[in-house]
Write a structure and sequence with these properties.
The protein is of the alpha/beta class and about 500 residues long. The protein contains 18 helices and 20 strands. It is elongated and about 85 Å long.
């Protein structure tokens, strides 16, 4: 019966997708869950309770709560009752959702289990905020033992009622999926469990900082499963976001270890599991609560090697900022080539073999910006700087690409760094030459690139990401810098030099 029902749900999923076009689903952030993913998610729940209360927010056709109900029925011998609350605001899918509930009721009837259910065709965010409010006149709050979610993936417009509603509740998020997860976590009872599938974009970066901090304060992460991309998980929706599935329990104490697993697409018969220290995933000293994802033995080795470097940018007396020149806003002041009253304007296209080569005759980007009172706030003093690209192509060998700006090669009274660059500086001024070269060499190492990929699933490198890195000491950076003359060494030499400094700390 369960296998037949699951097959039926996948057929329904195909039918719904066939009756609507991709743009319609994209507009509401709807990506219906394949049965194989739903079953795997259901398998991650651990606790057996006599009375189960399930929340499915953004229930779609009901595949998630159905898979969870089937899993609970198959393995819980002490079960007495199941209650399912399903939120879904897409009226076009409600008939399928009612069918799923009816089949669940039939399964529970055959098993002699009391079953109650409620389909709520309303806005989950508004309803959940009302449910989680506390006050004298607040109604009795619903609390759940289980929450299973594939929330909508869609940005929240800053001018919408939803954004104002969330802000008034102290929930600052930029995407619907984070709001759904945050609110669902608040609706769990103590020791209640959640399994969710979402993009992994929340794992790092400034936009999801408050979400991470609050989620990790409420919840204890137990298991994280990684896909290569959302295209593998939701192939027929043609979405390229990288996905993760995570299991968490509502409690404050954290485990010593966490399970990380991975699969090639939907092949859950060959899942690779790995148990790693919790502190490797969420560093308790990290005020931004980045979540690092270690799957292979190489990943864990990278963490151990990076542990050799304990210095922060603050300890080094350095800062990193984003380039001030946003070219389309300063377009009237830009010039294709240097001319009178202009100063160098540096773009990513000026990177070459670890140094800045300027000007370039490619014609794709301007080489100069007029130095005038109107542009003075966009310019900085000349000196040695280390620049990194903020964006890289998916197929590029490295995510972090660094280069040294040498003021002895490019002489100027002032400089402009374009907004697609980050630059390292010392209180707004240049760095000591050897320190700049050593920092550039370190940032271009394979070790740093591998470490960065553990907590970032996208190709953007923000200044915040660079602040989170561990760095060698000043003495180590100076030693590294002594190996750079007119150009940066080859990759093998870079990695050997950084490894040598690792060994010096072991």
């Amino acid at each position: 019966m369960a296998i037949e029902f699951s097959h039926e749900l996948d057929t329904i999923r195909s039918t719904v997708n066939g009756q609507s076009n991709r743009q319609e689903r994209l507009n509401i952030g709807q990506f219906l869950t394949p049965v194989r993913i739903a079953r795997f998610m259901a398998s991650l729940f651990e606790q057996e309770k006599q009375d189960v209360r399930i929340l499915d927010a953004g229930a779609g056709a009901g595949v998630l709560f159905t898979s969870l109900l089937e899993t609970i029925l198959n393995r819980n011998g002490s079960l007495r009752s199941i209650k399912i609350i399903a939120y879904e605001n897409d009226k076009n899918i409600l008939a399928y959702l009612h069918q799923a509930m009816t089949r669940c009721e039939m399964l529970c009837g055959h098993a002699g289990i009391l079953f109650k259910w409620d389909i709520r065709n309303e806005d989950f965010i508004q309803a959940a905020i009302h449910q989680t409010e506390t006050g004298f006149f607040t109604e009795q709050q619903e609390r759940f033992t289980h929450a299973i979610l594939n929330p909508p993936y869609k940005k929240i417009n800053s001018e919408t009622t939803t954004r104002h509603l969330l802000n008034s509740a102290g929930i600052e998020v930029s995407n619907y999926y984070a709001a759904f997860v945050w609110l669902a976590a608040q609706m769990l009872e103590p020791n209640g469990e959640m399994v969710a599938i979402t993009p992994r974009s929340f794992c790092n970066g400034p936009y999801f900082r408050k979400f991470r901090i609050n989620f990790l304060k409420m919840m204890s992460l137990n298991h994280i499963h990684i896909f290569e991309s959302r295209k593998n998980a939701f192939g027929d929706d043609d979405v390229l976001q990288e996905n993760v599935i995570y299991h968490a329990v509502r409690r404050s104490n954290k485990p010593d270890h966490i399970i990380l697993s991975s699969s090639d697409g939907l092949n859950f018969d060959e899942v690779n599991n790995k148990t790693v220290p919790y502190k490797y995933i969420v560093n308790p000293d990290d005020h931004d609560a980045f979540i690092r994802l270690l799957i292979t033995d190489t990943d864990e080795l990278v963490m151990k090697r990076m542990d050799c470097f304990t210095t922060s940018l603050t300890k080094l007396g350095l800062e990193v900022s984003t380039g001030r020149v946003v070219d389309f806003r300063a377009q009237e002041y830009l010039r294709a080539l240097p001319e009178k009253d202009t100063v160098p304007l540096i773009y990513p296209c000026h990177f070459e073999n670890g140094f800045i080569h300027w000007p370039t005759n490619s014609g794709k980007k301007p080489n100069a910006i007029i130095s005038t009172d109107e542009t003075r706030s966009l310019l900085i003093e000349p000196g040695y700087y280390v620049l990194t690209r903020r964006f890289s192509a998916k197929e590029e060998r490295r995510r972090i690409v660094a280069a040294v700006f040498d003021p002895n090669v490019i002489k100027a009274s002032l400089l402009g760094f374009e907004n697609h660059l980050n630059y390292f500086h010392e209180k707004g001024k240049g760095l000591p030459p050897e320190l700049a070269k050593g920092l550039c060499l370190y940032l271009n190492s394979t070790l740093v690139d591998q470490y960065f990929r553990l907590f970032s699933g996208h190709t953007q490198v923000n200044a915040t990401d660079l602040r989170k890195l561990r760095y060698p000491t000043c003495e180590q950076l100076l030693r590294l810098g002594s190996h750079i003359q007119d150009q940066i060494p080859d990759q093998q030499t870079i990695d050997a030099l950084v490894e040598k400094e690792c060994c010096n700390n072991d």
